[in-house]
Design a protein that fits this description.
276 residues; alpha/beta; TIM Barrel; 8-stranded parallel β-barrel; 39% helix; binds 3-methyl-2-oxobutanoic acid
Amino acid sequence: MYTHLELRDSARPPVSLATLHDMKARGEKIASLTCYDASFAVLLDIADVDVVLVGDSLGMVIQGHDTTVPVTMDDIVYHSRTVARGIHRPLLMADLPFMSYPSRERALENSVRLMQEGGAEMVKLESAGGQIEIVEFLARHDIAVCAHLGLKPQSVHKTGGFRVQGRGADAARRMVDDAKALESAGADIVLLECIPNDLGAEITAALDVPVIGIGAGPAPDGQILVLYDILDITSGRKPRFVRNFMADAANNLEAVRAYVRAVKDKSYPAPEHGFA
Ligand code: KIV
């Protein structure tokens, strides 16, 4: 077993928001993955993943639910704390789960929990125009915020399932406007899930902050995938944007390294991973 102590190395300074901005400016792609425990966290650090997300996808991947809706603050805090113990270099982002940010005050209270109890450095919330005030309030309290647009899994019961978002001129225009408004409100990163490639490119070009995509085409400044998907642990049908990095790897570490390499050299995502 690797230990996190081996990872403390001055040649590998921790990734900060400034690092991500530099990467965007230099055109170096940001490699991100989800993670839910300390053992995988150590492995992601060794493989030089830049951003690690304790996503509420843990509700489906770890807990076996059909959606992310049942995930609680206590669940995310628990998993974030375990991941935080395993990483040194990557920036640690944690999800605000379903209904943990219905007001500015609750969003702040729960973000503080993710940071103080869970060790997170940044919080992510599923956003649109309705969350601008919340993002602005968190930013005003110096909390680093990632605004998640596009497919928002916490809203699947309202939106009718896991579908590509932002199709059609009106929906695309609304998403571009929301992304710009969230950036102006203080979002430090924007994450785009499951949208057409062209819209991913338009939003990335319109924003100064780093944009990370999942099923948003090759243009975003970085990519993120669910760890268990790239390691082929997830059973059943996978989304179109998933690539199985275990196919040519001898072990998990090799697979994660191959993912980081593919994001950096832009061979992932390939045309077959995107949406028209
Ligand atoms: O919860 C999660 O894993 C996420 C990613 C899919 C981006 O939000």
